[in-house]
Amino acid sequence: MPVSRLALTAGLSATAVSALGLPAFAETAGWDMLKGITIEEIVTDTTYEVKKGFPERLKNGVEGMELTGYAVPLTPGADVTDLILVSDMGLCPFCGSADHGASVQVSLNTPIQGLEEGTRITIKGNMKPVLDPETWQAAILENAVIVGG
């Protein structure tokens, strides 16, 4: 049975959100589109496949898509080029619940310095579906730039 969720996720606790004094959810139409991705994992004795279904708007990618969310750097260090953007800081995507918020990997055009985990930002870039049948990762925002906080 298909599950509407993104596979690549980042876990942040509600406690961390409260400590930052931020609202727990970043509302945008882009998140609704990403939540429309369906994923079905098919495992047999000899094969593994992840079938993904994409909303019509995302099938060929979306240039210049803006998305507001909460940033989680993928690698340690001062210069951040890759991060995960999550829509909902109040739900943990690693707790086993299918009800967690959407998330997406972001590849920045230019590194940014000192990005703290949980920072609310608005990013603009080219959203592309990830078609690889061996990963749950479903979308990536490439050539992204930060356009707001």
Walkthrough of the structure:
The chain is mostly beta strands. The chain has two helices and eight strands. It has helices at about 15-20, 30-35, and strands spanning about 5, 40-45, 50-55, 60-75, 80-85, 105-115, 120-130, 140-149. A five-stranded mixed barrel has the order 4-5-6-8-7. Strand 2 and strand 3 (about 50-55) form a beta hairpin. About 30% of the residues are buried. The model is unreliable at about 1-25 and about 90-95 (pLDDT under 50).
Strand order of the largest sheet: 4-5-6-8-7
Percent of sequence in beta strands? 35-45%
Low-pLDDT runs: 1-27, 92-97
Order of helices and strands: EHHEEEEEEE
Distance between the termini: 37 Å
What's the helix count?
2
Quaternary assembly: single chain
Give me the secondary-structure topology.
Elements: E1 3-4, H1 14-20, H2 29-35, E2 38-43, E3 48-53, E4 62-73, E5 79-86, E6 103-113, E7 119-129, E8 139-148
Summarize this structure briefly:
With 149 residues, the protein is mainly beta. The protein has 2 helices and 8 strands.
